[in-house]
Amino acid sequence: MALLPIITLPDPRLRKVSQLVERVDAEILQLLDDMLETMYEAPGVGLAAIQVAVARRIVVVDIGKTEEERSPLFLINPEVVWASEELSSYNEGCLSVPDYFDDVKRPARVRVRHLDRAGEMQEFDAEGLLATVVQHELEHLEGGLFIDNLSRLKRERVVKKFAKAARMDEIVAQRRAQAAPQSEEAEA
Length: 188
Ligand code: GNR
Ligand code: NI
Description:
Helices cover 33% and strands 27% of the residues. By secondary structure, the protein is α+β, with helices and mostly antiparallel strands. The protein has two domains: 12-150, Peptide deformylase (Peptide Deformylase); 151-188. The strands form two sheets. The protein has a five-stranded antiparallel β-sheet with strand order 1-2-3-6-7. The structure holds ligand GNR and nickel (II) ion. Nickel (II) ion is lined by residues 94-96, 136, 140.
């Protein structure tokens, strides 16, 4: 098991469309385990592979509130095969858009089809927080983010704030490198 680094805005890899998994092999099972550990540690209730910079259609979800209530879902190639007309609103957050929360309306209930760890096709119905999280994760697989559902004004405000923070981090990193060069090459 290993903790994987979670990528955040404005990392352009978050906009990639993830590729179908053709075979559930040992590498995929290892990735699922590492993603679950990474999600619990974050902590979060869902994680898509693209958030750890792997563009494969793989998701882990666990909406259990305590360690005793843990019941992880491992979703490979997940799809929504039915969605209710009724919508429900949820105050969403995202590990790749840290410290920003806003309300998003999505279908209140969905039926999800996916492959399990044995490579078998499964289906389940979801409502409430689970329905929201699964749809939030499927959006990641298309290169989407929950902020894409907000007004353009709100979305652009969030994107600009993260772009500016990244520029500031870059300046600080450059100053540090200048003040304390790691090697002769770094200085040159
Ligand atoms: O941890 C998470 N919480 C959350 C809350 C409301 C709606 C969606 C989510 S998913 C998020 C983790 C994450 O970023 N998954 O992609
Ligand atoms: Ni997310």
